[in-house]
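Need tokens for this chain, all 471 residues.
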Amino acid sequence: MAEIKVERSHDQHLLVPEEDTAASTRRSLAGNRPRLASLDIFRGLTVALMILVDDAGGDWPMIAHAPWNGCNLADFVMPFFLFIVGVSIALSLKRISNKFEACKKVGFRTCKLLFWGLLLQGGFSHAPDELSYGVDVTMMRFCGILQRIALSYLVVALVEIFTKDSHEENLSTGRFSIFKSYYWHWIVGVSVLVIYLATLYGTYVPDWEFVVYDKDSILYGNSQSVTCGVRGKLNPPCNAVGYVDRQVLGINHMYHHPAWRRTKACTNDSPYEGAIRQDAPSWCHAPFEPEGVLSSISAILSTIIGVHFGHIIIHMKGHSARLKHWISTGLVLLTLGLTLHFTHLMPLNKQLYSFSYICVTSGAAALVFSSLYSLVDILEWKHMFLPLKWIGMNAMLVYVMGAEGILAAFFNGWYYRHPHNTLIDWIREHVFIRVWHSKRVGVLMYVIFAEILFWGLVTGVFHRFKIYWKL
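Here are the structure tokens for all 471 residues:
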């Protein structure tokens, strides 16, 4: 998906420890600069997780997005992407010869991310379930995954470009010298956090109304009202994140199937998706944008933390020094986030992109990245991760064709007598579900083997012929 999948550039290479400098020089002279393999694998793992939770989450709600407060497996995907974007920014912008050209490149890539985001998640594509295209522009969704990545990438990349002269290649030996050298990044990070918290807790949220556009609802076409008149609430109907989106984006341009519909207040089938209860509060029928304006501003912090980890690679040459810093930072972030959550100071909430959620998911990203770095770039256990590496090196292709269902929609367009009688449906039912005698297990096995492993093999072939889809 993006820099993560999209942004990943072939300029992002692994800076090896000092004792390997001679070997690195020979490789560079040969035109074969080494890549940071663990970052490719982390990117591929995150894309694979995205496919898993999107396509199997309906049958396994414990891995799908948490309906409101909490943090399930799906809730780690977006922060992992943003963390990887940050690491990639630090490596790809390690040396800048022309700031204008660098800004032009960043701006062009940002525009391409926005274009693909609007095309894939704005409502134009109905893949893979419906064999149709097109969207009413008055109902077009403005925000999405790639749009959030575009904003974070743009802001952090520009900070990296324009503050490049304010720090040196070789830092002093102080414990916090890396933070001091990149103080502008942390000033931006603190500013983002202050803006987010001030808006979240200081904005007055009045009562609001909306029209139900869900054609399956008995309230379709009816106007509903939600009573708020509060300030600083973090519940589904009356939080400032939703209020800002309704004012800036317009309620018709928000996501019409929010995860909160799986809460107990909305459905008797919770945590599974189900029909909305007749006595459910009116907000259960309302749209909510999980990648909205205020939450996307908060999400910039995830990328700033990622770029810090990239700076560690640049300035710390020893493996042990890097790992010590990464692991300690990850544990501090995890502890802070969990403390905020369990003391009820600020809940973990992906929909709001709360500060506690940033800390926990960034801490988890730090530990996962450290583990992969140890296994792949130090111990060189690369072969066992090859499918994930191939996916990570062609992540935009897998995101568009796999995660967004474009290839599946192509195959679903060739059906036998009925649109639901397709090759994909037949494989899922006869090769997986009937073999395992369980729909839940069969769907899980189908996603792992017929989707994730399939894309691992496809991208492996593409890698063999050096075919990459990058922005």
